[in-house]
Specification:
The chain is of the alpha/beta class. It has a single domain, classed as Aldolase class I (TIM Barrel). It contains 13 helices and ten strands. The two termini are 33 Å apart.
Length: 299
């Protein structure tokens, strides 16, 4: 079975006084490994990679590998310049990463050729397998199926982390089939949209690159195991049970502030654990998250 299947949990990188809280991060990683996630992806968007220095990212990568035990660790390496990306690749290799997560990060808008050449440079630089990270909500770049196909032909690409699919099994199958048609068989297809992950996994995705998996691994594992075992109704019912959590993501403009508040309320991270200028949720927002945690019995 490929490394790039099942549940890959994306942990926060908690900060305290504008520095990485190493103890809190190590504890989060150990908790994920104990719970039995299939892999851990450090320095994803939930891990605030774009806000950290090279030295901070190197330290986080080492901590993740050290505290993950036998659980494979993938490390995000995206950065504004290709030279910086390659430095991050070297850092991840030195830390003992099992794979890399690469998003096309930019200030100026990128073209498809810009993005292809970025992936080619990384594939030529390393033997570590690479996850293509398609996250238009943060990168403002949208991959076309044709670009998926071009990049998937490069030696080294192992998986595609695609955005949300429709919350409808037939339409989800169509979307996944469109991607599968342009990539080689060995490249796995993963979903990153948590609210539709049950549909995506039931419709043919191989992996869930999961935001909530990094903080709430148990319900994420329940959905993943059920969907991949063909127990579609169970997977969708568990996802529907978490609908109040998905609505929080929509209400607060994405998952990062909600997940940070959730981790803080669960005692996994210090208060105000996000990198400034991201302020996190105000008192009313935190209270709302606490109500949802209690109603769903997630504490």
């Amino acid at each position: 079975m490929s490394l790039f299947t099942g549940l890959s949990a994306f942990p926060l990188t908690p900060l305290a006084n504008d520095a990485v809280d190493e103890r809190a991060f190590a504890s989060i990683v150990e908790r994920l490994a104990r719970t039995g996630v299939d892999s851990i992806t450090a320095l994803g968007s939930t891990g605030s990679y774009a806000y950290l220095s090279l030295a901070e990212r190197a330290r986080v990568a080492r901590l993740a590998v050290q505290h993950a035990g036998d659980t494979p660790v993938f490390v995000g390496v995206g950065a504004l310049r290709t030279s910086q990306v390659l430095e991050n690749v070297d850092m991840a290799e030195a830390a003992g990463a099992a794979g890399l997560l690469l998003a096309p990060v930019s200030y100026q808008p990128l073209t498809e050729n810009d993005v292809f050449e970025l992936f080619r440079a990384v594939c030529e630089h390393t033997e570590l397998p690479i996850i293509l990270y398609d996250n238009p909500g943060t990168t403002h770049f949208t991959f076309s199926p044709e670009l998926y196909g071009r990049i998937a032909e490069l030696s080294g690409l192992a998986s595609i982390k695609m955005p949300s699919v429709p919350a409808d099994l037939n339409r989800a199958r169509d979307r996944i089939a469109e991607v599968r048609a342009v990539v080689p068989e060995h490249v796995t297809i993963g979903i990153s949209g948590d609210s539709t992950a049950a549909y995506a996994l039931s419709a043919g995705c191989d992996a869930w690159y999961s935001v909530i998996g990094g903080t709430l691994p148990v319900p994420a594992l329940t959905i993943t195991r059920a969907a991949l075992a063909g127990q579609t109704d169970q997977a969708i019912n568990e996802s529907d049970r978490l609908a109040p959590l998905w609505r929080l993501f929509a209400e607060y403009g994405g998952s990062i502030r909600v997940i940070a508040a959730l981790a803080e309320l669960l005692g996994l991270a210090p208060e105000r654990c996000l990198p400034l200028p991201i302020q996190g949720l105000d008192a009313a927002g935190r209270s709302h998250v606490a109500e949802v945690i209690e109603s769903l019995e997630l504490a």
